[in-house]
Write a structure and sequence with these properties.
Elements lengths: L46 H12 L13 E9 L7 E2 L1 H12 L2 E14 L2 E12 L4 E13 L2 E9 L15
Parallel strand pairs: 1-6
Antiparallel strand pairs: 1-2, 3-4, 4-5, 5-6
Length: 175
């Protein structure tokens, strides 16, 4: 059996060419950006958890959709659970969905606050900050459940609060 394929951490020379992967230099299809590597580690974090933390903190700036193939199995599914009918199948479709979503924002920042891992299941609690094109920031708490197979994501489900936020509903809701 072949060793599982794992994406490499974004870095400089020697990784996918002399200057690293194209997306690490801001050459992705979503425009210029600054790559911000994960600086926080979690005690006892295993290889699967490291893989998922790398994914959730770097996907907004990756050269998607092609880079998704480095993280997902061919039969992977992504579901944004609060949105009915949001299931997306396959790494290319997942990458295309994320590119479409990413285009709505100037940039997205992800802060991982907690990680739980048991075997091939990784749960990641994070704060996502979406900076809109007009500079307004929207912040959401998100929990992601990731299932891995041979070191790659085969299922990703995100859960987040669906109640209106001040940016989406500036006026108090009537009782």
């Amino acid at each position: 059996m072949a060793a599982p394929r794992r994406p490499v951490a974004p870095a400089g020379p020697g990784r996918r060419g002399a200057d690293g992967p194209p997306w690490a230099a801001g050459k992705g299809p979503i425009g210029p950006f600054t790559y911000r590597p994960v600086t926080r580690t979690f005690e006892g974090m295993g290889t699967n958890a490291e893989q998922i933390v790398l994914w959730v903190t770097s996907w907004p700036e990756l050269g998607l959709p092609p880079a998704a193939a480095d993280f997902f199995t061919a039969d992977a599914i992504y579901e944004n659970v609060p949105v009915q009918g949001s299931e997306v199948l396959g790494p290319l479709a997942i990458g295309e969905t994320l590119v479409s979503f990413r285009s709505l924002f100037d940039h997205i920042e992800v802060e991982v606050t907690a990680v739980a891992e048991q075997g091939d299941l990784v749960m990641v609690e994070r704060i996502e900050r979406y900076v809109l094109l007009d500079g307004v920031t929207l912040e959401m708490d998100v929990i992601g459940a990731f299932e891995l197979r041979d070191g790659l994501i085969c299922a990703w489900r995100d859960y987040w609060e669906v109640a209106p936020t001040p940016i989406l509903a500036p006026e108090p809701l009537a009782a």
